[in-house]
Amino acid sequence: DTEVTQTPKHLVMGMTNKKSLKCEQHMGHRAMYWYKQKAKKPPELMFVYSYEKLSINESVPSRFSPECPNSSLLNLHLHALQPEDSALYLCASSQVIRTLRSTGELFFGEGSRLTVL
Amino acid sequence: GIQVEQSPPDLILQEGANSTLRCNFSDSVNNLQWFHQNPWGQLINLFYIPSGTKQNGRLSATTVATERYSLLYISSSQTTDSGVYFCAVEGLYTGANSKLTFGKGITLSVRP
Lengths: 117, 112
Fold this sequence. Notes:
The complex is a heterodimer. By secondary structure, chain A is an all-beta fold. Chain A contains no helices and eleven strands. Chain A has strands at about 5, 10-15, 20-25, 30-35, 45-50, 55, 65-70, 75-80, 85-95, 105-110, 110-115. In chain A, a hairpin with a 6-residue loop joins β4 and β5 (about 45-50). Helices cover about 0% and strands about 60% of the residues of chain B. Chain B has no helices and eleven strands. In chain B, β4 (about 30-35) and β5 (about 45-50) form a beta hairpin. Classes of the chains: A mainly beta, B mainly beta. Chains A and B meet through β9 and β10 of A and β4, β5 and β9 of B.
């Protein structure tokens, strides 16, 4: 069983809808990530939170809005998405290894498969 | 940024066969992971292996950091090994906002 839990597993939304993806981890990790993955491609990093602060935003459009309410939770708020935003959205977490400035071992959730109509 | 190349891109095996998957990278790394993505999309950790050798059941991995490559060995393959195998690395000198760079993946199909 994965220790990173994502909900919902599947989401269908229209272009005018507002929805949220949720992620929770109980491994005591202090870094959390959102990745986007299109079919037959590797995951692409969207956002990184380190100690509940946004540390990396990979030039993601503002229709995606991340939120990290506490060290265990990560949300991705979705608004006015486009059909090309349909993808698998993966949440991950890791320890922060500051001495090495390293990501540490990354653990992924099962993903939320998003379809935008 | 660091470049990651995986080979072969596709691999078809008969059940019970052994295989070796390769990951080459272009710079020194402080993090290297192998993942298996199953047909339902879940990315499963196989190994965290920036250097050295590890084994877990039928799977083992070796990273030779000085020569900038890592190998994933699958022995006695099973149909459940099918899926995409990703290598992801993090460069040693990428600074405070370091991140993992993924290879394009190796698609493995194990036939019964």
